[in-house]
Specification:
The complex is a heterodimer.
Chain A (H helix, E strand, L loop, with lengths): L2 H14 L1 H33 L7 E5 L4 H13 L3 E7 L1 H11 L4 H6 L8 E6 L5 H10 L3 E6 L2 H42 L1 H9 L4 H37 L11 H28 L7
Antiparallel strand pairs in A: 1-3, 1-4, 2-3
Chain B lengths: L1 E10 L3 E11 L4 E5 L6 H8 L7 E6 L2 E2 L8 H5 L2 E5 L10 H10 L5 H14 L15 H13 L5 E5 L7 H16 L3 E5 L3 H7 L2 E6 L2 E6 L46
Parallel strand pairs in B: 3-8, 3-9, 6-7, 7-8
Antiparallel strand pairs in B: 1-2, 1-4, 4-5, 9-10
Helix pairs in contact in B: 3-4, 3-5, 4-5, 5-6
Classes of the chains: A alpha+beta, B alpha/beta.
Chain lengths: 290, 265
């Protein structure tokens, strides 16, 4: 089979049904753009919350600097049945964390005495419903200065990113399916427009793949163009967003590597949606015999 | 070349199109399938080109039971079976040359092969001078010649024709029959479904008659209707001297002097 033939046929199909092809590309674009944005926003939310909250819901600030005593408290808390993980953060580590958090404000960092940072136990629960009981018990432990629950803001950020994530995935899947349907419709129309020709091709013994490949290529091109546009729009949209909006403490920077890797995933999804769409559209037309 | 063993075709579980048909067709034979509309002629043609699968029985074509042939191998079967239909099935936006070349192009033949084979077969069907025309610029008879050229350009073992003269006037039909006769003389087995009495009677070839899906008659050198005295053959059609299929030594032989040039038809 000549590549020249396959590409020529696919190009003809794409040209003949400009509106349908645009519709299919738009469907892929919208669905993949939403998915890509959901991934990015989720990553932003996760990044800004993760500093403080790697699943930690309670922080117990500790008195003094007696490492042996602190270890004892940490081990005790870790032994409680409700506690999934208890992590000790010493004075030095707490200062390091403080430095990274406020690296944009060196004056503040200079003001703070490293030894004044309190040590703490960061506690992760199996079930957040038990948090009240745990807080009460922690208050009774000797050497615990203060007990803080995850701040509402952080909780909210996490919650928002969770909702966005779910909504993004649900929307992405729903729109992804519609993209597959749109592509399969486009291919079906292209086949319908050329049914005579295909009938004759099969009559004179063209192999199924010979008939199929141009349409497969057509779907693939539609999926890739739609996915490519989604990635470009997402990339530049996000860059514009972070350079024009200052959200203060929330960390909005996402590494390029993340954008690239998720962009490739989105592109691959577009290609797969295109291929599946055209195979679905082709299926009925290529059945040999009843 | 073709062997049907107890072939039955049932549509939708209720409509019986073909019942228990047994037949054997040798290489180089010319066979008419006759019978009224709905008798199963077209179904039989579709079974032979594996557009349909039989419900029961075996269909052997060129040494393979095509009832068992997997779908993906069907294209390869079609390359050894040429097909011609009543409605020509030409691509309106391709020239005569393009329509014939299409059959070679889609099975991946080289440009050189196309350039060599297409003019040859256009000469055979008498359309050399009209290679650049579009189908709508041709008469019905000429369009059918293009369709025959397309079916034959790949030198199939078998040529199946479903009512090839059904849309043509009698004089044009005679020309088409001369052409099919000529192709048959190259050793190609021809199976033609027809309800054109004049044609079948004039050709005096083997006739298989179907009625209600059953095979009711199989006669060598038969006529359309059983037990009628056959009329004189059409001028120019050479009635085979004996009932046996054209012997292989006749292959590539020029038609006898009595057969007028195909170009004139």
């Amino acid at each position: 089979m000549r590549a020249e033939y396959v590409i020529g046929e696919a190009a003809t199909n794409l040209r003949r049904n400009v509106l349908l092809v645009l519709g299919a590309i738009l469907a892929v674009f919208v669905s993949l753009f939403m998915t890509y944005m959901a991934l990015v926003v989720n990553e932003v939310g996760r990044n800004s919350a993760a500093r403080w909250q790697e699943g930690i819901t309670i922080i117990a600030w500790l008195d003094g600097s007696d490492l042996a005593n602190h270890t004892l408290i940490t081990n005790e808390v870790a032994g409680w049945p409700e506690v999934k993980r208890a992590q000790y953060v010493g004075k030095a580590e707490a200062f390091e964390e403080f430095q990274t958090l406020f690296e944009s404000n060196p004056a503040l960092v200079r003001e703070v005495d490293p030894t004044s940072m309190p040590a703490s136990v960061r506690i992760e629960l199996f079930d957040n419903e038990t948090h009240e009981a745990v807080v009460v018990r922690l208050s009774g432990v000797g050497g615990v200065d203060d007990v803080v629950e995850a701040s509402d803001a952080v909780e909210d950020t996490l919650e928002a990113s969770r909702v966005l994530n779910t909504a993004g995935i649900v929307l992405g899947v729903a729109l992804g399916l519609s993209a597959v349907v749109m592509i399969s419709n486009t291919v079906r129309m292209a086949i319908y427009a050329r049914r005579e020709e295909i009938g004759i091709m099969k009559l004179v013994g063209a192999s199924n793949w010979f008939v199929r490949t141009p349409f497969l290529l057509e779907g693939l091109v539609e999926g890739l163009i739609g996915g490519g546009l989604a990635v470009l729009a997402g990339w530049f949209g996000y860059r514009w967003f972070i350079s024009n909006l200052d959200l203060g403490v929330i960390e909005t920077e996402v590494p390029d590597a993340f954008l690239v890797s998720r962009g490739l995933v989105v592109l691959a999804f577009g290609a797969v949606a295109g291929a599946i769409g055209s195979l679905v559209g082709l299926h009925r037309h290529l059945q040999e015999s009843r | 070349m073709i062997r049907l063993q107890a072939v039955t075709k049932v549509y939708d579980g209720t409509t019986i199109a073909i019942r228990e048909v047994n037949a054997s067709i040798e290489k180089g034979e010319f066979v008419f399938l006759v019978g009224p509309s709905g008798s199963g002629k077209s179904t039989l043609i579709r079974l032979l080109m594996r557009e349909e699968k039989p419900t029961n029985g075996e269909i052997w074509v060129a040494g393979r039971n095509i009832a068992e042939l997997p779908d993906w191998k069907v294209p390869y079967l079609r390359r050894s079976v040429g097909t011609v239909f009543q409605d020509f099935k030409l691509l309106p936006n391709k020239t005569v040359f393009g329509n014939v070349a299409f059959a070679l192009e889609v099975i991946g033949r080289s440009k050189a092969m196309v350039a060599q084979q297409v003019p040859k077969v256009l000469k055979l069907v008498g359309l050399s001078s009209k290679a650049g025309r579009l189908p709508r610029q041709l008469s019905g008879g000429e369009q059918q010649r293009v369709s025959i050229a397309r079916a034959f350009v790949n030198r199939p073992l078998i040529l199946l024709a479903d009512e090839p003269t059904g849309n043509l006037d009698p004089a044009t039909s005679v020309g088409i029959m001369r052409l099919l006769d000529r192709i048959n003389r190259t050793g190609t087995t021809v199976v033609m479904a027809s309800h054109d009495h004049a044609i079948v009677d004039a050709m005096r070839r083997r006739v298989i008659e179907l009625a209600g899906g059953r095979m009711v008659r199989d006669e060598t050198r038969g006529v359309y209707e059983a037990q009628t005295s056959p009329p004189e053959p059409l001028p120019g059609i050479v009635v085979p001297p004996n009932p046996s299929p054209a012997p292989t030594k006749q292959r590539h032989q020029e038609p006898p002097a009595g057969l007028p040039s195909v170009e004139g038809a």
